[in-house]
Amino acid sequence: MNLEEKWPVLCRHERAAEWLRIWTDLGRAPRTIDAYARGLAEYLLVCDREGIDPIVATRAQIALFVRELRTRPSRRGTNVVALDSGSGLANATLQQRLVPVRLFYDFLVEEGVRESNPVGRGRYTPGRYFGGQSRPLVPRMVKLPWIPGEAEWFQLLDAFRLEPIRNRLMLALAYDSALRREELCSLRTDDLDPAHRTLRVRAETTKTRRGRVVPYSAATGVLLSGYLAHRAGISRARGPLFLSESRRNYGEPLSLWSWSKVVRRVALAADVPQFSTHTTRHLCLTDLARMGWELHAIATFAGHRSTESTLTYIHLSGRDLAEKLNRSMTHLHAQRISMLTAADADGTGPA
């Protein structure tokens, strides 16, 4: 199904369809194009319903779209983490929906169709009025990524011990090498270097389009050897490392969604429902920080463009922060107490 069939509203807006065709021709990932099409189509539907011409829409009219997203009933019910009301889309989803709308207006500005982008961008500056271009339409909430505690992590590992060797290896590699879901599922047999216990993450499979070589542990190497022997019984051909063993797709490359379903099933069985395919990456990078790795080294390992991105992944536990606070406060308290007792020590205390 093409985008016009999935989102008929795009056919009614020539400029929108043109913009999406350009992104498609430039080779953007299909999932990215689909996300852009969905966000822009939802915006155009609101424009049609409210009688707004999207080509000349104002910032106030785009705010109607934001209000629609913020108040829209969720398919998951009212227990949704949202900006304030407990209903509507989560903040991260709101940001995702606005990205294609902002990029669409960037395109119109570049084409000379309009003079400014009504969505705006930038960081919030206290005291600036609503129309100031330095303030975004929706404030961005930056949340710390969730990572499991020791007990939760061991619960999950116990549950995974009962899984087939393929699933155990995938979890081990995801943690050892801090792999994103697509990077993990896209691994090929020729990406492996067992002699040096490293694997190559190809640029085309990464979020930042930056290739890298990362290590994995000796224990994971044992799992890899066992899985390669198992895989030979499914297919001896070189190609995708992880293969499906279901009746319908036997021998086909394992899909992203299949791996997500595996992780979700095991997470629920282990009573750790917050665990996802990305949690292993968060945990690995946080553990590297706890071991004293420098920020730049962690950013290189993770494949981030800048250390600023790495900071959102690295957060120390409350226990770590408490230990740091205690160490610093002990020194501070000792310094203050020494000042109070110095007067008595030199005999100049109160009479």
Notes on the protein architecture:
This protein has 351 residues and is mainly alpha-helical. It has two domains: 3-110, no CATH class; 150-311, hpI Integrase, Chain A (Orthogonal Bundle). Helix content is 51%, strand content 3%. The chain contains 14 helices and three strands. It has helices spanning 3-6, 14-25, 30-50, 59-71, 91-110, 150-160, 165-176, 181-185, 218-232, 256-269, 279-290, 295-302, 307-311, 318-345, and strands at 192-193, 198-201, 212-215. A three-stranded antiparallel sheet has the order 1-2-3, with no helix packed on it. A hairpin with a 4-residue loop joins strand 1 (192-193) and strand 2. Helix 2 (14-25) packs antiparallel against helix 3 (30-50) and helix 7 (165-176) crosses helix 11 (279-290). It is globular, with a radius of gyration of 26 Å. The termini are far apart.
